[in-house]
Amino acid sequence: VSLRTSDPVELLAAARAGDRRALARLLTLVEDSGAAAREVAALVHPLGGSARTVGITGAPGAGKSTLTSALVDRVRRDDEDVAVLAIDPTSPFTGGAILGDRVRMGDHALDEGVFIRSMATRGHLGGLSVAAPAAVRVLDAVGWPWVLLETVGVGQVEVEVAGEADTTVVVLNPGWGDAVQASKAGLMEIADVFVVNKADRPGASEARRDIEGMLSLAGHGHARVDPSAEEVDPVAPWRPPIVETVALDGTGVDELWQAVRAHGRWAAQTGELDRRRARRTARELERIVAVRLLAMATELGEGATFAALRADVDARRLDPWSAADRLLDGFGPGRPAAG
Amino acid sequence: VSLRTSDPVELLAAARAGDRRALARLLTLVEDSGAAAREVAALVHPLGGSARTVGITGAPGAGKSTLTSALVDRVRRDDEDVAVLAIDPTSPFTGGAILGDRVRMGDHALDEGVFIRSMATRGHLGGLSVAAPAAVRVLDAVGWPWVLLETVGVGQVEVEVAGEADTTVVVLNPGWGDAVQASKAGLMEIADVFVVNKADRPGASEARRDIEGMLSLAGHGHARVDPSAEEVDPVAPWRPPIVETVALDGTGVDELWQAVRAHGRWAAQTGELDRRRARRTARELERIVAVRLLAMATELGEGATFAALRADVDARRLDPWSAADRLLDGFGPGRPAAG
Prior knowledge:
Two copies of one chain form a homodimer.
Chain A: H1 8-16, H2 20-32, H3 35-44, E1 52-58, H4 64-77, E2 82-87, H5 95-98, H6 103-109, E3 114-118, H7 127-142, E4 146-152, H8 156-162, E5 167-172, H9 178-184, E6 193-196, H10 204-217, E7 242-244, H11 253-270, H12 272-302, H13 304-314, H14 320-328, E8 331-333
Parallel strand pairs in A: 1-4, 1-5, 2-3, 2-4, 5-6, 6-7
């Protein structure tokens, strides 16, 4: 492929033939979310559906990147290809690489079976939550069987994105209280597998106890799907297992990967995977609709009426909600959808 | 005021008379963002306009809460009242309080001149970015002259909220690279004052050099407003000063507060404060419009057409953007605003 083409059709063909620069350029188009992003979305959509996505999230400093890197090693040992999408400003894959922390990335730099891409968390409201699933669809369409989605578990959009993988791994650290923090950040509801990373430090058992306590509070039964079983009971509920790891030396990473795959089997066999994907599509559609409506709102925001209403709010003649009412007066569905 | 009233008019009257529980309840109404939130917004809007807001943001672990607490002490020494709105899941004011880290909060617990409120970062897309300014308006209307807004500097919504104070303080730590991370998270553009906290640790001068370098790259001139001058040159651009602090023992906090007030004087005298508040109102208005439109989108999302289109997307007959097109067909401004 020519180094200079920006034609989505050409780029997609090249990316599917293994051209990594073409893939990178497709992802840039998707991230820029301009007109080309739409074209890419339309092109890749029919091609996808076989990738499995694994979200890896937790507070900054929990060791998500080291764990992601260790999981990449683990997946490669089975000779499966794996892509990483890092949406974590504190990750060595993104910010950290600049800090000379290239060592771990370097482990995979020459491996054709690994593709690592970082994504900025900046941009418009809703930008990340639309761009991340779009990027996953590209990686899926190009043929990456595994997509690891590393996201920082802080920030409402970020946590939302983290929860939309097929399987979500929440990474905590030893010590009492980390689980409470994670719960406040909204991470408990999205966890399919818990990791207590840095488990060689004191407090790993307290962390485990905390998690168990919160799971029971949340109404999870004690019945647990056996992670090593090939067949699962399709009516058995999934209680998120807790895996202790030391990502730096690889301790527990095998067990973690086993738990991830067990969740995948359970989700596929119980129909949960399809339900989850349908919910994800619904949310993605809602968000795209919201982004489109937001664009309409911004257009409204450029009109003379908007400026006058803004001045009224500043002068305290009008509160913001009443001003919004006036802007939106008459705004709504006109004729029914052509369907 | 009765412990049980939830009438916004009564609550506001009581809060303005100094009833802290009434204030707390008003803030809960605003956070819940139901119909009562609108009523509260309409009530408080004409009363506000005198509070000064100071955003304090930075990565988790940078020491924002300790610094916020030290600033509260500093403000109180001038016998001025101060409210803290903590939107930081890693803050001891919010999550941390549960962890037994009540010590610093306890310093202010009996002080009638201090009001501390935490706010969850969870909820709907746009929820925080609408609820936080609404909460500031309540504190303003009730008469708090200073509102410190502590937000975690990770997450796109959170960084956006942090940047919407009258003066924004970005907290970094010693060592090379923290400024690069902050820049990636979008914090450099929103900083009016930089703090290198934990400046007793090695690397404070490297951090300062990093920040200076990034400021120069961003086109900031070297001319600097003298933070100790009462009158400022209204055409002099503001170059964010860098203050070194050790929040734990109060070192540098005086200088920081001086820098914050200097920025306030500069902003007021140059007209920047008015411009900034007008921009803030415009963004708030856009967001409320967006939230309203999002509600319309969700209504669309409940219709039969939505379900059919979602199924088409899942079956890969239609890509999400084209599905959104069909949903929005005919959607738009109908008759002109009644104004």
